[in-house]
Design a protein that fits this description.
Alpha-Beta Plaits, 14 strands, four-stranded mixed beta sheet, five-stranded antiparallel beta sheet
Length: 398
């Protein structure tokens, strides 16, 4: 019996709705077609032939996304505001309209097929104020969710922007095809298109506010729960995931000309007599915030008081003199991280090796593990400090 179980409490596990289709014809299609017919035939108002077709397409996209994501314990993010569905918008390109999307969501809630929660989704597309949707067991059983999820296929949108610019203070909508980032991402995607993995799709690079901010590489599967990512196959082969240890902090320490420790979080923890997790949370907030006040305010939600905050700050700055806390340097480190990722992926493409990024970690097939270890060390040194040897570790969950 198909079951989704309870929705995850962690709302970071959400993906914006995207175009999906079923790659087989059989029981999977029949069960979904029966449900779609029922929803259209019992619509509360009279529909024209074209309206029936358009509404059916909206229901179909919502249901495929909800089923596929709910099986993986991921929320589907969908807007409900009129502004989101304007022509040429992302949601319009998915075939969604305000006229039919909001009534479809309301009907699915009313029939007990989905649950929805309001929230803010800050993901790769810069989307916000989206409703999180998760399937109920009634839906899972009605369409046999596991069979549907196995049969879902994603299109490979070659026309979508591969390098995306958002929130620039001056007009910056697109880049020319010969821009270094665009040409490199194009080469990588051209290679990846012929390979297969879970939640397959082209990579994109996202810049926010200016050319040195963010610049991270995004792929569809990055928001997958870790336990599912650990089961990923590439071209049917088992995979490994290698991770840069404490990457942003290690970058800064290397740039300060100081020797790299085995674990900078642990080194600060020993001096401050705090836990490693507390140091990690403090570091993430303090490198990302552009003022000490903003960093502290964000940490208050993580049960930090002023005494704990100051104790870790003193330990970090005394151990690593010159550490640029509270300067917003984190977004620039993300950009550097993105460039390293592109160089590793391009090196893989040139060798016929698929490499998939998850921010500061990388996934490849188990038979290419040794090659990935070497590339991660090489490209980090090339982009950060020549000759520096950072720490790479294998994800323990695998």
């Amino acid at each position: 019996m198909s079951s989704f179980g309870h929705p995850p409490e962690d709302l970071d596990y959400s993906l914006p709705l995207e175009p999906m289709q079923l790659n087989v014809i059989g029981e999977q299609q029949s069960a979904l077609k029966d449900l779609l017919k029922e929803l259209i035939d019992t619509h509360p108002t009279k529909l024209t032939k074209d309206q029936r077709h358009d509404l059916r397409d909206v229901y179909r996209q919502i249901l495929l996304n909800v089923v596929y994501n709910s099986v993986r314990k991921v929320h589907t993010a969908i807007p409900r505001g009129t502004q989101s569905f304007q022509k040429a918008s992302y949601w319009s390109s998915c075939g969604l309209t305000y006229k039919f999307t909001v009534p479809a969501l309301d009907r699915l809630v009313e029939d007990g097929l989905i649950v929805q929660m309001k929230g803010v989704y800050n993901g790769p597309g810069g989307f916000s104020r989206l409703t999180r949707v998760f399937g109920t067991d009634k839906l899972a059983q009605r369409v046999d969710a596991l069979k549907i999820a196995e049969a879902v296929d994603f299109g490979w949108d070659e026309d979508a922007a591969q390098v995306v610019l958002t929130d620039f203070p001056y007009k910056a909508d697109t880049l020319s095809e010969d821009h270094p980032d665009v040409s490199r991402v194009t080469r990588i995607n051209r290679f990846l298109k012929d390979h297969h993995w879970q939640q397959r799709g082209p990579i994109r690079v996202m810049y926010k506010k200016n050319p040195v901010y963010s610049g991270r590489v995004y792929t569809r599967f990055q928001n997958m729960p870790k336990e599912l990512r650990a089961q990923m196959l590439i071209d049917g082969k088992e995979t490994v995931e290698l991770d840069y240890k404490s990457n942003h902090l290690m970058m800064l320490i290397a740039m300060l000309g100081q020797p790299l420790p085995d674990d900078p979080y642990l080194a600060i923890a020993e001096i401050s007599e705090c836990s490693r997790d507390q140091i990690k949370v403090f570091t993430t907030a303090s490198l990302g915030a552009d003022s000490e006040v903003k960093a502290f305010n964000s940490l208050k939600r993580k049960r930090f008081n002023k005494e704990l905050f100051n104790k870790i700050k003193l330990a970090a700055t005394s151990l690593y003199e010159g550490l640029p806390l509270f300067t917003g340097v984190g977004v620039m480190l993300q950009s550097l991280e993105g460039q390293i990722a592109l160089e590793i992926m391009e090196a893989g493409a040139n060798k016929g090796i698929v490499v998939l990024p998850v921010h500061d970690s990388f996934i490849t097939t188990a038979d290419n593990e040794s090659w990935l270890w070497d590339q991660m060390a090489k490209q980090w040194a090339n982009n950060v400090i020549d000759g520096a040897k950072t720490k790479v570790e294998k994800k323990s969950s695998r």
